[in-house]
Each structure stands twice: as structure tokens, then as C-alpha cells.
């Protein structure tokens, strides 16, 4: 295990100490618990937005707490859900009189704990909480249809949900409308990735799976979950040719649509390679007459040192586009008004 | 070689096509040459700042072209200098009537070509050009003293030189003053790193060096240049305990000083580990009574998929601090006024 860490059991608390030390004007924690991160920029009367999940995915999840995005984040150990109590403490801290929206990825532990936290907020603190569960990974399960349970994993596309809902809350929309926006972003974003190498959970000390030096896995999840197929490593263009049509067929995205694109590095894949991939993505979108309103390239949702990347496409209407283009300022994501 | 690329010889041109496709409102190229990148936000009467160097270090070098930072960048193949002709074409394109400053790292090929480009600018285009060569790597050579040739490599600390000089130019300082600021930043920044794994130049197809699974190299350069010593992998705290005092002793930094810090990931090292490292950096600086005015953590100067990181410390006075805190907006680095 080749990592720059101290004792594995201290990995996440020490990472958090580093984060609070580096960004003292932006984030702090409540309840004397480093894992209960909240913004330093609380706005009276604004809907509070909280997220949470296991560690090991920086900048996901805590990196998006800041102006124009989220207000709090419950932080678990590596790949483990934080507790309902931690979520509840954050909920109390960020409620500014307009209620709180939970946005998180579709994982059983998170669902269980966020649901319990929402009940605690209702019964013990009289705070109205609504929840939106992001499940954007085309690879991971059956299709999402109206009224059906979404069995898909939440992956990098949750960034778009944070961005649009965060901007909606910053516009002082009420809780129903911020939830409506988050749901609309969820319904219009799809992601698929490719994994090339595993990562090591420090406490475990060995890779979660093995993959041959000449292999890749299409559709791998951000914890190394099994994807759609494993095969010989293809070229960048061939990978995009295989992944992107599966994304586009899913909603489906159609000629004349406008989209935002996120090329997300999983941690170990250089930015150079992510741009080689975007080149092919744009060629295909152009050929399909799908217009790109904005492109993000970089590490937005990682799996520590895992190699690989994902492609997310968000279909926008005028409202989502306006919210996407709004200013945001967090320790990890900054955007001037576009 | 496990990379998401197409033909190795097309790696950099295809990466550049991806960059221009992703950031059409921010950057473009001149002379029909993808390797001659210039800003879309030229400001009349402002000193132009150009940089350049080999590829494989994103966001270095081209990622810092944008508002409040640089105006142009000559882009070489992986780890290879761009040509004097390319630098000259950029110089002509970005000159806005106030002359041009070259800021680049201390590598022989770059020095040779930038010097030739400056002569061409003088003789063929009557553009005044000044140059500042960054050499911040404490590990790489003998001390820098007044009047002595700096034999140190330029590494991640060049980010601070770009930031301060870019803000000075944005304030409409003249060429002499922008150069003065760049020199002051160079004289006050020091960096040292640690490498854990090699990277592969696509055209070469195999690692530039080998290092055992339980080893690290203190002081390794961003092309894998030999450092100060190779030994067993230490803990995060032990690595900082070894590196940081060598940085602090160098200028030296003293009790009561104020500094900015950059923890830079080399490409393959997760952000989580970088924060564990910053935690220890801050503890030591606090114990030394050195105040941190701002902290940057992330990938600022990489070596593709290389694992490892570097620590840079910039000693600031009121002028450098003002310039550091100014707004900047490039495709890869955004900062609201601090």
C-alpha cells in the first residue's frame, strides 16, 4: 500500500484536520465532531442543503459546501456512510428557517441514515426536511421510469444536482422549488465510467479487486463495483464510442438538445487523458446535433488513486441552464457567473 | 502502459483539441498551430505574460492562461521544450503595446528557446521582452545567492510567480514593475517534493525509472529527476518533518514571517493524502510562529500519473499578499478576491 498517510485509522480525521486548517474562512464543524462539516456562510431565510456519504471521493462530497452550492456535509469513514446523528446535527446547524434538503447518492446505508435523520429533524427539532436521491449511473441497473424505484448508483453526475439546487437555494427559492430543481437535474443527468485500476482502503491495506495490466472495466462504480463488461483496454476514442451512445440512448438525448458535460477523473488518470476523451465526446455530440452549453473537465468525484474516468451529460432547459451558469465559490469548486 | 489515449504520437495534439473544444470562450491558438495557445481576453495596454514548456504537467503550464494570470503559452510535446518560433508567434499575438514578460522554469531547452524568441521579438517585431526564470526546487542544486546563477529546477512554486505577476499586469503595472514582482516572487518561493512512482511518456511506452513498492524518493523532480535520497516510504508526518525544515532553512523563513502554502499533487496521489500532509505542515508552521495567509491544495503542477507531492512556501510582504489575493479566472484556476 503506497500511500502518504499516518496510521490508517487516523486517515479521515487527519484529512479533515487538514481541510479545516486550509479553509478556515469557508468551513467549520459542529457538535465537536470533525465529521459534521458546515459552511461558514450561513444565509438567513435560505433553504439549507446537506449532503453526505463515505470518504475517499474528494472533492465529493464535502468539497461542494460553500457559496452557491451546499451548506453541510456528513462525512463517513472511507466508503462508509456517516451516522444519522451526524446528519441530524448538521441539519440543525444549517437550518435557516426555510427547511433543509438532503441530496445524496443512491446507496443503502446513506438512504437508511438520511431517512432516520429526517425523522429526527421532524420530531425533535421541528425542521422540515425533503430528500432527493441521485442515481445517475447508466451502467448500474434497470432503467428509471416514472414511479419506479431507481436502483442506479449515484456517481459524478450528482455534481450537477448540487450545482443547480445550490443556485436555486441561493436565488432564495422555497424548499418545494429547490427540491423540484434537484429532481429535475437528477432526471436529466446520466453518467457512465470506465475503471482501469483499483484503489486501496487504508484500513484494509489491499486492493478491493484485481484487474489485469491490459484490461479495463466499462461501467465500474466509484467503489469498484462491477460494471457492464471487462475486456482489453481500448483506445480513448473506442471507449467514448462505446460509453457515450449508451448515455445518449438512455433519456434519450435528441438532436437539438442542449447539454452540459462533465469529464470526471477517478483520481489516478491524468487531466491530459481526460481532455483526449472530451475531444471525442464533443465530436459525437456535434454529429448528433446536441449543443454543449458548458464543459467541466477534472476530478469531481474520485475513488482515491483509482485510474479511470466517467462521462456525465446533463440535459438542460432554460431554468437549469441559468442555475448552472450562476456563480459558486467553495474550497473545491469556483465558478464566476458564465 | 495503461493510459486512455489513442496513438501516442497524437497524444498532445488531441489533448489540445480537447482543451480548445472545452474552453472556447477562454483560449484559442495562433499561427494555425495548436501549440501556440493565447487568451481570448486580451487587454489593450496591459503587459503580456507568456510561459511555455513541455507537456505532461497539467494544469501547468497552459492552464494558467486567463484573466488575472497569463496571456499565452507555448506547448511542447511531453517533457520537451516548444520551439522559439512558437514562442515568438505567441509574443506577437499577446503584445498589447506594453511589452511582454516571459516566465518559465529553469530548464536548458526552454532557456535556449525563450532567449531566441526574445531576440526575434526585438529584431523582427520591435517588441520589448523581459524574462524571469523560476527555480524554486530546494532539492535540485546549490543555493541561490545574489548574482549567482540559479541551477535549480522550476517546479510547482512557479504558480505563485504566475499569480503575483499576473495580478500585477492586471493592475496595469508597467513591464519593469511586472518583472520586479515576478523576480520578487521567485526569490521568495521554495519547493521540495517526494516521488513514489514513475510516469510513462506515451511515445516511450515504459516508465522513466523504477522504484520499489516500499520506497520513496525525497526531492524528485517533475520529470522524475533524481532527488536528494531514496529510502523506505515514511509516514505523511515523517515526510513533512524531513522536507519542510529544508524549505524553511533555505531563505530562511523566520518567526513572524507570513507565507502562502501550496500542497501540490503530482497526479496520482489522492487529494485526501494531500490534506493529511497539509495538517502537519500547518502544525510545524504554527510552532515556528510563521503565519499562513492562504493555502492552496490540489494538482497545480503534475507529472501525468506520477504519485507523490510537493510543498511550496511563498514568503509574502504586503505587495505580494495583495497580488496573491486578487481575483483570477482561467480554465484551471479560479479565485474570487480574497
Automatic annotation (TrEMBL), chains A, B:
PROSITE patterns: DHAK (PS51481). Residues 7-333 form the DhaK domain. It holds the Pfam family Dak1. This is Dihydroxyacetone kinase subunit DhaK. It comes from the Bacteria. One of its GO terms (molecular function) is kinase activity. Keywords: Kinase, Nucleotidyltransferase, Transferase.
